[in-house]
Amino acid sequence: MFVWIDRLLILALVLVVAVLTMTSLPALGGQTLGGQMLLAHMMASGVLVMGLPVFALFFLRYFAAKRPASGFQNLGYLATVATGLVTIVTVFLCMLPIPSTHQMHSLMSLHAWAGFAMIPAIVVLLIGARATRSASHPHS
Q1: Number of folded domains in the chain?
Q2: Domain residues for 13?
Q3: Which is higher by pLDDT, 51 or 27?
Q4: Which residue spans traverse the membrane (predicted)?
Q5: pTM for this structure?
Q6: CA 38 – CA 58 distance, rounded (Å)
Q7: Is pLDDT of 65 > 90?
């Protein structure tokens, strides 16, 4: 049962980050994010904001001594959660009336870097999850 929940959570995380990456690609070219792309980005970000804590809490069980997990899986998990939290917190800080315009631009730049850093973090997580699965199930 837990294997299927793991797979669904990882699949959902991969899909959400893929949508967020695709909708943010125009920003790499120096364009502003607006219109339908911004709307899709905002909808997917809501899923990430709600889903990342579920993913983080559910995958904590792999840090227990009884559960074997590869170093890649642990590294990927920590990197995914860390980059996801930085991505979320930077936007949250921009919503507060505290930062200046220049600080908001800096926060959005950090948001972009942290968001794009989620891609290699998830790749490491997937490699580690596959290695853990292969070690515990030689037939797969």
Answers
A1: 1
A2: 2-136
A3: 51
A4: 39-63, 75-98, 110-129
A5: 0.87
A6: 30
A7: no
Instruction: Read off the pLDDT of residues 73-121 as tens digits, 9 standing for 90 and up.
Output: 899 999 999 999 999 999 999 999 999 999 999 999 999 999 999 999 9
45 Cβ contact partners less than 8 Å away, ≥ 6 residues apart: 20, 91
Please answer whether residues 77 and 59 qualify as being in contact, where contact means their C-beta atoms are separated by less than 8 angstroms. yes
- What is the C-alpha R_g of the chain? 17
DSSP string, the chain: -HHHHHHHHHHHHHHHHHHHHHHHHHHHTTPPP-HHHHHHHHHHHHHHHHHHHHHHHHHGGGGSTTS---HHHHHHHHHHHHHHHHHHHHHHHHHSS-S-HHHHHHHHHHHHHHHHHHHHHHHHHHHHHHHHHHHH-TT-
Q: How confident is the model at residue 136 (pLDDT cuts 50, 70, 90)?
A: low
Mean pLDDT of 54-77: 82
For the chain, how long is the longest CA-to-CA vector?
Answer: 57
